[in-house]
Structure formats: structure tokens, C-alpha cells
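Researcher: Sequence recovery benchmark, item below. Answer with residues only.
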């Protein structure tokens, strides 16, 4: 999966270029004077979209940077981070992205500047205490309605002790790491099933039609 800006709108596309989702939630995203910044980043699992922005025109005094972290499937705003400096925005043949994440989506690396000029630019590193919970992919995406299929759920922000329901029924879960759960499916009626992951702290996320029982 990859993310891009097309006609001012963020799009998530699959490897075959098909449109997977269009995260958009204007009432949550709106900041007066908000400006898009090149450098959309996806969580490695495809669960979250990291979207950088400026609070005003680039290069102006008093303008700061920010990062919206959205659910890549629903577009729901999960976390907003405001930076003390503004992103660099000059784009040339070698520089077109000003935001990157580590393999867990927990450390964010931003190219920022105190005043928007290259001579005052540097790296801002943000360490998240907790990565928002999200579901990226399920492999395989289908299995027997009788249950007993072993799935791998890739996502973000998983905690040890996380629970999973498929079609409202509890599944067996093994925690692998903060991005990976192994799940044994319960018996279910044939058809598309909603998958829900709940962390021990009560945070929960669902993905409709994420798994098909057949």
C-alpha cells in the first residue's frame, strides 16, 4: 500500500494502484490557515496515515508544523501533534518528503526549520508514548466458517493482552509484537465478518468486512 495527494486529497492505494480508501474528515482536520506539506507517510502495516501540515503560509513568522495521525481505512483522526517549528516545504528533484517514521510508527522524523529557510533547518524527532491502535491487514483474508483458521493481523499499537472478536465472537489471540497478532478464528456464519481489536486499556478499533468466512 502507499499514500499520495491527488487534487489536494489524501488517497490510500493498493499495490495494483486500485483505490483502497480516501481518509477525509474535514470537521476534525480543519485548522484556520492550514496548509498541506509534502511527505505523507503510512504506518508499515498500512493501519495509520501520518499527514503533515502547517498552521499557516510557509516561511512566515509564527507558523508551526503539525502531524495528523489518521486511521487509514476510516479517515478518523486518532492523534494530532503540534510542533514548535515549521516543516520545510521546498521541493526539488532530491527532496520531496519531510516526514518519516520508524518500523513501529512510534518515532517520527521531520525536517523542520525555525523560520522556514534551509539555513535554519534541522531534524525534529517525536517519540510517541503510545501509537494509536489500528488494523492494517489480515492474512489470509478468508477461511473456513467452521473456525480454526490461523490469521496474522498486522496493525499498530497492539498491547500484550489484546483481545480480538470476529463477527462478534471471541478469537484465540497470541501477541507477537506491537504490530502483529496471531489469531485463531471462531466458528462463524458464512460471509464478511467485522474484526475488532481491543487493548487491555480499553482502546478499541474495528474493521468491517475484514475477514470472510466460507
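Model:
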Amino acid at each position: 500500500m502507499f499514500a499520495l495527494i491527488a487534487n489536494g486529497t489524501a488517497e490510500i492505494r493498493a499495490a495494483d494502484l486500485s483505490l483502497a480508501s480516501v481518509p477525509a474528515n474535514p470537521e476534525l482536520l480543519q485548522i484556520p490557515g492550514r496548509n498541506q506539506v509534502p511527505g505523507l507517510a503510512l504506518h508499515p502495516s498500512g493501519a495509520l496515515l501520518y499527514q503533515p501540515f502547517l498552521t499557516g503560509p510557509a516561511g512566515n513568522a509564527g507558523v508551526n508544523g503539525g502531524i495528523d495521525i489518521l486511521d487509514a481505512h476510516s479517515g478518523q483522526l486518532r492523534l494530532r501533534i503540534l510542533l514548535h517549528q515549521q516543516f520545510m516545504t521546498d521541493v526539488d528533484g532530491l527532496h520531496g518528503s519531510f516526514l518519516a517514521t520508524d518500523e513501529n510508527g512510534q518515532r517520527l522524523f521531520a525536517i523542520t526549520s525555525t523560520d522556514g529557510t534551509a539555513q535554519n533547518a534541522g531534524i525534529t524527532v517525536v517519540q510517541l508514548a503510545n501509537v494509536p491502535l489500528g488494523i492494517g491487514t489480515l492474512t489470509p483474508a478468508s477461511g473456513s466458517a467452521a473456525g480454526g483458521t490461523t490469521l496474522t493481523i498486522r496493525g499498530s499499537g497492539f498491547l500484550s493482552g489484546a483481545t480480538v472478536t470476529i463477527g462478534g465472537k471471541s478469537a484465540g489471540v497470541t501477541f507477537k509484537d506491537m504490530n502483529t497478532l496471531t489469531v485463531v478464528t471462531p466458528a462463524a456464519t458464512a460471509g464478511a465478518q467485522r474484526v475488532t481489536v481491543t487493548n487491555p486499556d480499553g482502546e478499541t478499533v474495528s474493521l468491517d468486512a475484514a475477514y470472510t468466512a466460507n
